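stage 2 :: seqdesign
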């Protein structure tokens, strides 16, 4: 089921399957979100939970038992319930059950809220530990944006701009795992990264120590684009599909794919949140149309 929210600055549509954002338009009706095309990538903005990225061989060990989980976790493939809806906001909830525990043996509630705050569309993840043991998880966003956004532009007209100078030695993604000991130079004390398809031929760029908490994808020709604020997240992925896809994803992560220097114990993964029983954790990022 598709749910629509709106205010005077724009509109958004959300699918209850996976709580995935399906559309983000400004007040003029210009679509900013990638609309999915399996020739390049069929997704749009999947919710990443309880892992970000891939596990080695799609497997991990929890409490001495082996579990299988697909890339980016279970939430993206499951139906959510609409638990609150207003004209300018909607909350969707996923509750653990016998099926989720076959892949991820913990009790939780995952609430995903989309709400307009003036021109910002905020995506909020609220995780509740409803079990009796510590809940380990990663969470992240994966919204992809049209690049170019309007006729007469091309991919190379766009730039990713940061609020502060960045020096990025991006760890390499090798067979879906991250090698933090093998890196390539992406930026050297710069605020802007010009888009070129070849940047993504070896997979995503990973900003694992970003100084900035605001980033823009913007056309130098027309000024069209988006601005994202992601202060609640420790990593930023920038990605496009390898076959010269006409989109760029800006991905705020708390967590990442299994590192090549890690074993397969779930609790040994980098940047996990460890949530005590009866507690909740909230992480949010905002996007506005330019």
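stage 2 :: out
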């Amino acid at each position: 089921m598709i749910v629509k929210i709106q205010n005077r600055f724009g509109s958004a549509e959300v699918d209850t399957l996976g709580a995935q954002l399906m559309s983000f338009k400004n007040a003029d009706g210009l679509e900013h979100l990638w609309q999915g095309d399996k020739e390049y990538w069929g997704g749009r903005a999947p919710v990443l939970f309880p892992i970000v990225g891939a596990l080695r061989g799609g497997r991990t060990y929890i409490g001495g038992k082996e579990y299988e989980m697909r890339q980016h976790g279970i939430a993206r493939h499951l139906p959510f319930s609409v638990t609150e809806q207003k004209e300018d906001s909607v909350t969707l909830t996923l509750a653990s059950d016998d099926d989720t525990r076959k892949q991820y043996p913990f009790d939780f509630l995952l609430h995903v809220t989309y709400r307009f705050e003036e021109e910002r569309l905020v995506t909020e993840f609220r995780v509740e530990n409803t079990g009796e043991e510590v809940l380990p998880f990663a969470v992240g966003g994966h919204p992809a944006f049209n690049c170019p956004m309007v006729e007469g532009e091309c991919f190379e007209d766009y730039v990713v701009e940061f609020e502060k100078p960045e020096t990025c030695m991006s760890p390499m993604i090798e067979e879906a795992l991250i090698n933090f000991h093998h890196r390539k130079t992406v930026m050297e004390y710069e605020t802007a990264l010009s888009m070129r398809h070849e940047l993504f031929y070896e997979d995503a760029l990973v900003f694992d120590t970003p100084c900035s908490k605001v980033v823009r994808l913007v056309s130098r020709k027309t000024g069209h684009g988006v601005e994202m604020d992601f202060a609640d997240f420790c990593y930023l992925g920038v990605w496009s599909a390898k076959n010269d896809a006409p989109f760029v994803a800006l991905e705020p992560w708390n967590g990442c794919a299994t590192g090549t220097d890690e074993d397969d114990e779930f609790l040994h993964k980098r940047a996990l949140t460890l949530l005590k029983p009866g507690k909740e954790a909230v992480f949010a990022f905002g996007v506005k149309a330019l």
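stage 3 :: structure notes
- The chain has one domain: 2-289.
- The mean pLDDT is 98.
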